[in-house]
Amino acid sequence: MNRRITLPLVLVLVSWPSLLPAQTSVPDFSGPWTRKWATASLYDAPPSGPGPVMMDPAHPHHGHIVGVNGQPDQEATPWIADYSNPILKPEARAVVQRITDEEIAGKSHVELQTLCKPSGVPEVLNLRDDMQMLRSSSGREITIVYSRDSQVRHVYMDVPHSNNPVPSWYGESVGHFDGDTLVIDTIGLNDKTETDRFGTPHSEQIHVVERYRLSADKKTLEGLFTVDDPKFFTMEWSGTADYRRSNRNPGETICAENNTNGGIGARPAIPVAAKADF
User: Fold this and answer.
1) Which end of the chain is more exposed for a tag (fewer CB within 10 A), N or C?
2) What are the C-alpha distances in Å from 61 to residues 23, 38, 111?
C-alpha cells in the first residue's frame, strides 16, 4: 500500500516543472569598457533633475593642442568650475571657489588619481582608462577592476549593508540586479577623496547609488549615479557616466608616485643626492 502511494507522488513532482524555481539570467557586462564623455574628464548631466558641478560655460577647458599648418601650439586651459550650482552648501562652494581661483592663477588642481591615490566613489567613474566587471562563478560578488593603477572595487551581491562600516577609500558596496540593471549601493566612504575633478569635497556621510545597464545595441554600458551627502550638498543630485566597448586588450596603467604640478606647463624637479648616504 505504501509503495503505491509513494511512486505516483514522485512522478507528479518530477513532471511538474511549474513547481520548480524559475531560472533567471543576468546581463553580460564582461569585456573591457572605456569611459565616454560629452565633456572630457567630467560627468555628463542626468536625464533630469539636479546635476553635478560642471565647467563654467564662459571658460571652456581644452587640453594641449598641437599647432598645424605653421600655427603655434596651444597650451591647456585651466579647469574653471561653475560653483554657482545650487547643489553646493556654502562650505563646499568655498572649497570649489578657492580651487578655481588657484586654477585661474596658474596653480593647477592635481587629482588624486594623478597623485597615485585611490579615486573613491563617484570620482572613479571619471578614470580615462579601461574598466572591467568580473562576476564570480557563484554570483555572490562582482569585482570591478580599473586598469588605472590597478584600482579594485568589490561589490557583494544580494546582501544588506553591515552596521556602521569602518570608513575606507572605496567604502562598502552591495549590489543586486533590478531586471537588466545592476544597482550598486555604496556607503562607508572616508572623506579623503573628492567628488569630482574640480575638488568638490564630501563627508563620510556620502551615499552613492550607481545603476548600470547595456544599451539596446550592446555597445554602451549606460551608467547613472546619485549622490547624497547632507553635510556638503543641499540636495540629492545625479550624473551620468557612460562607457563604450574598448577595442584594446586589458592592461595596466602604472602610476608613478610623487607627481606634482606647480602650475600650467611646470615640471617637477628631479631629486639630486647632494651627498652620499653612507
Assistant:
1) C
2) 50, 13, 16
d(CA 143, CA 60): 36
Spatial distance between the Cα atoms of 264 and 74, rounded to a whole number of angstroms: 12
CB 173 within 8 A of CB 212: no
The gap from C-alpha 176 to its chain's centroid, in whole angstroms, comes to 18
Return the residue matching grid coordinates 562576476: 135
Q: What is the value of pTM for the model shown?
A: 0.81
Percentage of the chain lying above the pLDDT 90 cut? 59
Q: How confident is the model at residue 237 (pLDDT cuts 50, 70, 90)?
A: very high
C-alpha span between 119 and 125 (Å, rounded): 9
CA gap 29, 167 in Å, rounded:
28
SS (H, E, C) the chain: CHHHHHHHHHHHHHCCHHHCCCCCCCCCCCCCEEECCCCCCCCECCCCCCCCCCECCCCCCCCCECCCCCCCCECCCCCCECCCCCCECHHHHHHHHHHHHHHHCCCCCCCCCCCCCCCCCCHHHHCCCCEEEEECCCCCEEEEEECECCEEEEEEECCCCCCCCCCECCCEEEEEEECCEEEEEEECECCCCCCCCCCCCCCCCCEEEEEEEECCCCCEEEEEEEEECCCCECCCEEEECCEEECCCCCCCECCCCCCCCCCCCCCCCCCCCCCCCC
Locate cell 554602451: which residue?
220
Q: Are β-strands 151-157 and 172-178 bridged in parallel, bridged antiparallel, or unpaired?
A: parallel
Tell me the C-alpha distance between 120 and 137, whole Å.
26
Mean pLDDT, residues 87-101: 97
Which residue do the cell numbers 568655498 mark? 94
* Residue found by looking up cell 507522488 in the block: 9
- Is residue 32's pLDDT more than 60? yes
Q: Residue 167 — pLDDT band, cuts 50, 70, 90?
A: very high
